[in-house]
Amino acid sequence: MSDITINRKAPRDYHILERYEAGVQLKGTEIKSLRQGHITLSDAFARVERGEVFLYGCDIKPYDKASHEQHEAKRSRRLLLHKNEIFKLYGASQQKGLTIVALRAYWKNKKVKIEIAVGRGKDQRDQRHDLKEKVENREAQREMARFNDRGGKAKGKAS
Questions:
Q1: Distances from the Cα of 9 to the Cαs of 30, 31, 154, in angstroms?
Q2: Contact predicate 60/34, CB 8 Å
Q3: How far apart are CA 104 and CA 113, in angstroms?
Q4: What rounded mean pLDDT belongs to the chain?
Q5: Smallest Cα–Cα separation from 98: which of 46, 42, 157?
Q6: For 24-83, how does the pLDDT look when each residue is reduced to its tens digit (9 = 90+)?
Q7: Taking the CB of residue 58, how many other CB atoms lie within 10 A of it?
């Protein structure tokens, strides 16, 4: 499984509660554009409508070598899920404060898959807390690396 793109904004803006793998219904020029990596998921979200799940805000740039037939860059695309997964997503989307966001797009057995998740929006306080925790972990790793490089001995002293 190789990633085509990752939505780096999603973990920053949402508490991820549940993840799902979905197939996506695409046109031929969209696949060719995806092979070149021309996709953006930063504003992508999903909605359940009439018993089907649709992906909105996913930007797949037009394929530059296409002849006369071209796809629309920001059209809604149908996601392919099992019926019980659709029911779970519908129930989650009806709860206040929960949304369905796209996390990443990747190849699996020559097919494009979209990882979607049910997420609860973070407020600014949560984002600051996560950033502070990340900085603390980085500093701890740096200290551990510095300690391990010394091998427990003081530097510069001759034995």
A1: 23, 24, 43
A2: yes
A3: 8
A4: 84
A5: 46
A6: 988 878 888 888 888 888 888 999 999 899 999 888 888 777 666 766 667 888 999 999
A7: 25
- Taking alpha carbons only, the member of 100, 91, 134 closest to residue 120 is 100
Select from 24, 61, 60, 47 the least CA-distant residue to 101: 47
Closest CA to 79 of 39, 26, 25: 25
- Complete domains list, the chain, with CATH: 2-121 (2.40.280.10)
What is the C-alpha separation between 34 and 39, in angstroms, rounded? 6
CA distance 46 to 58: 10
Distance CA 59, CA 76 (A): 10
Task: Write the pLDDT tens digit of every residue in 9-32.
Answer: 888 888 889 999 999 988 878 888
Handedness of CA 78, 81, 83, 87 (dihedral sign): negative
